[in-house]
Amino acid sequence: MPPAPTFTALLNEQIANEFAAHQQYVACAVYYDSQALPRLAGFFYRQALEERDHAMMMVQFLLDTDAQVQISGVAAPSAQFDDVVAPIALALEQERRVSEQINALAATARQEGDYTSEQFVQWFIREQIEEVATMTNLLRVAERSRQDEADIEDFIAREHQDSESADPTAPRAAGSG
User: What is the C-alpha separation between 155 and 151, in angstroms, rounded?
Assistant: First the structure.
């Protein structure tokens, strides 16, 4: 049984939002690379891949439920930043906006009586709590250490190791095999 049409339309919009977030995080990573801040660059490259995976999880859900998938273009991301803190502040704002979008998806599914879609969205709600908390903490550290970028790099090295294990409860992403 396909998802409710209103949910499908919103999920297709969210796929575009996730790809836009991917692009924004790539732009943040490139900025940090240009500033010789490899830990921050690596953190944002990983975040970019995670956003891409979120989009592909949504694509796979629509494919699995025999719903129409639309892959839309996205606007160019912000690529110029005033300082080391600005990309992180932008990322936190973006994660808060995505949380609102995901909650709207859950509300739409519930209003439509589309319990399969509502259950699918629950993983993303939990994920957004983690994403907002991560960016909030990183922003606090960056604001406090604005004058000593090495402190921010040290925080990333300590708190955000390069190797994260895959979440076994995550939805399958399209193309992941």
Answer: 6
DSSP per-residue codes, 46-78: HHHHHHHHHHHHHHHHHHHTT--------PPPP
- From CA 22, how far away is CA 8, in angstroms rounded? 21
Domains and CATH numbers, the chain: 5-159 (1.20.1260.10)
Q: How many Cβ atoms are within 10 Å of 149's Cβ, its own excluded?
A: 19
Report yes or no: 139 and 88 within 8 Å, Cβ to Cβ: yes
Q: Which residues, including other chains, have CB under 8 Å from residue 154's CB and lie 6 or more apart?
A: none
Residue 49, CA distances (Å) to 1, 24, 171 in order: 30, 11, 15
**For residues 15 and 71, is the Cβ–Cβ distance under 8 A?**
yes
Task: Write the pLDDT tens digit of every residue in 52-85.
Answer: 999 999 999 999 999 999 999 999 999 999 999 9
Residue found by looking up tokens 């907002």 in the block: 132
12: tokens are 């297709």
pTM: 0.93
Q: Is the pLDDT of residue 44 over 70?
A: yes
